[in-house]
Design goal:
Domain FAD-binding: 2-82
GO molecular function: FAD binding
Protein name: FAD-binding domain-containing protein
Number of strands: 5
Number of domains: 2
Number of helices: 2
Shape: elongated
InterPro entries: FAD-bd (IPR002938), FAD/NAD-bd_sf (IPR036188)
Radius of gyration: 22 Å
Pfam family, one: FAD_binding_3
Helix content: 10-25%
Length: 103
């Protein structure tokens, strides 16, 4: 899906690992120690949850998919070329809605 690049760009990867003996700082280990030639993203990454969700929602929109919050998926099934789902809106406690999507 091409998400790794978006996550790497939005996050913080310049991390230092600290070693302690109890409460005594022994030293720092720079990320260069852990570099691996077999991956483009060898370092750790700090990324807030809201940024992860924003990146995922943006990517899903490119496929015509909108994320629905405050809803519960109560059932789903397939009928020929269509996926049928039933959901309940928790925010307003509306009656179940049936939505069909062509597969």
């Amino acid at each position: 899906m091409g998400l790794a690049e978006a996550f790497a760009e939005a996050g913080i990867s310049d991390l230092v690992i600290r070693q302690y003996n109890g409460t005594e700082l022994i030293g720092d280990i720079k990320r260069e120690v852990f570099l691996r030639p077999d991956t483009r993203f060898p370092q750790g990454l700090i990324l807030p949850q809201w940024k992860v969700e924003d990146i995922l929602r943006t990517k899903l929109r490119t496929f015509g998919i909108e994320v629905e919050t405050g809803t519960e998926l109560t059932s789903f099934g397939q009928d020929g070329d269509y996926i049928i789902k039933q959901r309940i809106c928790q925010s307003f406690r509306k009656r179940p809605a049936y939505v069909c999507h062509k597969t």
